[in-house]
Fold:
Amino acid sequence: MAKRGLEGNMQAQPRVFAHDAVLVSHSDTANIPNTEDRGCCLYVGNGGNMKVTLESGNTVTFTGINSGSFLPVLAIRVWSNGTSASNILALY
Structure:
């Protein structure tokens, strides 16, 4: 599978730090805003379990996430069903 944003020049390399953040609304039907082309990293304010769909289209559940954790994944959706974590921020 081709990696989006990985090209042969420095300007196309993935960013390491976020330039924007929005509060994520859990949804079983809608993706996180602005993830049409690329997923986003997640910050979890209040820990628990979190079911997410990744940029690849795979859906996984992270269990036992600690409060104040960063998930270095490229997520496009946080599901209501299967998510007990809260105060989740999408980092772009």
